Structure formats: C-alpha cells, structure tokens
C-alpha cells in the first residue's frame, strides 16, 4: 500500500477515536443533541458511523454483514472498542486489495458485482461526512471538540517537526 492511502486510513482511525473520546465526556442529554441538516443525534450518528464501518469491513472480507443500527446503542466505550478494531481491519483489508479485486454482494433485493475499492473509499468518505455532522452538532451547542484536521493528525502522530521557533 502506498503511503498516501495508508495515512488516509490512519487519519480516519485517529479522527474517529478522537471524536469518540470527546463524546465520552458528554452526558446522556448531550448525546441526544442534534442540529438541522445532520444525520440525527450525536449518539445515533456515532452508532451509525461505527456499524456502517463494520459492514464495509465484512464486505471487504468477502462476508455478508451482520452489524445493524437496529441493535440498542451500546455506549461510547463499546463504540470506541468496535471502531478501533474495525478501523484496524479496514487498513489491513485496504492494504491487501489488488487491482481489479471485486466481489458479489446482496444489496436489498438485488445481487451486484462491485469493485472492492468502493467499500474502502466509502468507509473514508462516510466517516468524514458523519464526523462533520457530529462536529456541527457540538459546535452549534458550544461544545469544544478540539482540532481534528490533518495538521492536528500530523502533529499527534509525529509527522510534523518544528525546525525553528517563530
């Protein structure tokens, strides 16, 4: 896997865990906050994000997904545990994808052949989209969520080094 793709998945995991750590400090009432234009509440959005990633991973592994948002909200600590494991799996599966890799999958009432890179790329896009929703909710309610951009990731992971003081 080239460095760009690897770092994209590493950022994805870091951002998911950062946001879950922020949300772990919220009370139950705050987890039920929402704002117009977002997926739903913070809790529902986090649950959806993690469960969807579990489905992308199982499809990349050639299996039919079993994870569902219909299960009760498991709590932030459990979502964090699942996200960490799932995001490690997504990175490993993305690294193994060969050019032209595809699989046959059931989607609702039809069977499709789909390139496997679609699931890997969708995991990155979907995660960014819903993290943005959660950050919008937090910001609208004056709850600080810290710095989650690529620069913050580079600093946090040792990919930024100060050469001189300003």
Keywords:
166 residues, mainly alpha, Four Helix Bundle (Hemerythrin (Met), subunit A), two-stranded antiparallel sheet, 6 helices, 2 strands, 58% helix, 7% strand
Description:
This protein is mainly α and 166 residues long. The chain has a single domain (3-156), classed as dinb family like domain (Four Helix Bundle (Hemerythrin (Met), subunit A), Up-down Bundle), CATH 1.20.120.450. 58% of the residues lie in helices and 7% in strands. The chain has six helices and two strands; from the N terminus they run ααααββαα. It has helices spanning 3-24, 28-31, 42-60, 76-96, 117-140, 150-156, and strands at 102-107, 110-115. A two-stranded antiparallel sheet has the order 1-2. A hairpin with a 2-residue loop joins β1 and β2. α1 runs parallel beside α5. The longest helix has 24 residues, at 117-140.
Percent of residues in helices? 55-70%
Secondary structural class: mainly alpha
The CA-CA distance between the termini, in Å, is: 36 Å
Number of domains: 1
Strand portion: 5-15%
Question: What is the mean predicted local confidence, pLDDT?
Answer: 94
Q: Sheet bearing the most strands, described?
A: 2 strands, antiparallel
Q: Count the helices. How many? A: 6
């Amino acid at each position: 896997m080239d460095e760009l793709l690897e770092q994209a998945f590493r950022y994805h995991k870091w951002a998911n865990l950062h946001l879950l750590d922020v949300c772990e400090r919220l009370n139950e009432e705050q987890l039920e906050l929402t704002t117009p234009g977002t997926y739903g509440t913070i809790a529902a959005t986090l649950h959806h994000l993690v469960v969807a990633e579990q489905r992308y991973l199982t499809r990349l592994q050639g299996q039919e997904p079993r994870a569902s948002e219909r299960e009760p909200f498991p709590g932030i600590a459990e979502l964090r545990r699942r996200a960490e494991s799932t995001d490690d799996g997504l990175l490993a599966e993305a690294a193994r994808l060969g050019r032209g890799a595809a699989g046959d999958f059931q989607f609702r009432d039809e069977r499709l052949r789909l390139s496997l890179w679609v699931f890997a790329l969708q995991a990155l896009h979907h995660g960014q989209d819903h993290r943005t929703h959660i950050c919008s909710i937090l910001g609208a309610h004056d709850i600080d969520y810290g710095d989650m951009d690529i620069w913050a990731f580079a600093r946090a992971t040792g990919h930024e080094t100060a050469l001189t003081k300003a």
